[in-house]
């Protein structure tokens, strides 16, 4: 289902949309719909990224453990290069200073 929405666009933006749409062989409407969809997809991906990070942080606080950034980087770099690598080991966090290694 679709619904109609009205947008008031600055003249310069409207002209740019018309120019880009014409160069891509699309209508201004189609270009705006595609652009809005792409922007919403990006926004949702950012929200998921932040939610995943928050969940990981809460898990670290709950378990009192985390992974050293340099260990994770070395592991990912080795794997990306095709090498076998041991998974990084979790380290204990200082309960008095979450985020700091004990």
Description of the molecule:
It contains three helices and two strands, in the order ααβαβ. The chain has 102 residues and is mainly alpha-helical. The protein folds into two domains: 52 residues; 38 residues, no CATH class. It has a two-stranded antiparallel ribbon with strand order 1-2. It is elongated, with a radius of gyration of 23 Å. The model has no long low-confidence stretch (mean pLDDT 94).
Question: SSE layout and pairings?
Answer:
Layout: H1 11-23, H2 28-63, E1 65-66, H3 69-80, E2 91-92
Antiparallel strand pairs: 1-2
Helix pairs in contact: 1-2
Q: Percentage of helical residues?
A: 55-70%
Characterize the overall form: elongated
Largest sheet, described in full? 2 strands, antiparallel
Total domain count: 2
How much beta, percentage-wise? under 5%
Overall mean pLDDT stands at 94
* Uncertain segments: none
Question: Which sequence of SSEs, written as H and E, runs from N to C?
Answer: HHEHE
Spatial separation of the terminal alpha carbons: 55 Å
What's the alpha carbon Rg, rounded to whole Å? 23 Å
Can you count the beta strands? 2
The assigned structural class equals: mainly alpha
Query: Helical segment tally?
Result: 3
Sheet with the most strands: spatial strand order: 1-2
């Amino acid at each position: 289902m679709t619904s109609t929405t009205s947008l008031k666009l600055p003249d310069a933006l409207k002209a740019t949309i018309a120019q880009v749409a014409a160069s891509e062989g699309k209508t201004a409407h189609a270009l705006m719909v595609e652009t809005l969809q792409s922007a919403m997809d990006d926004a949702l991906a950012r929200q998921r990224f932040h939610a995943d990070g928050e969940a990981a942080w809460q898990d670290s606080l709950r378990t009192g453990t985390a992974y050293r950034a340099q260990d994770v980087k070395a592991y990912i770099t080795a794997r990306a290069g095709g090498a076998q690598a041991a998974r990084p080991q979790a380290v204990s966090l200082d309960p008095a200073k979450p985020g700091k290694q004990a």
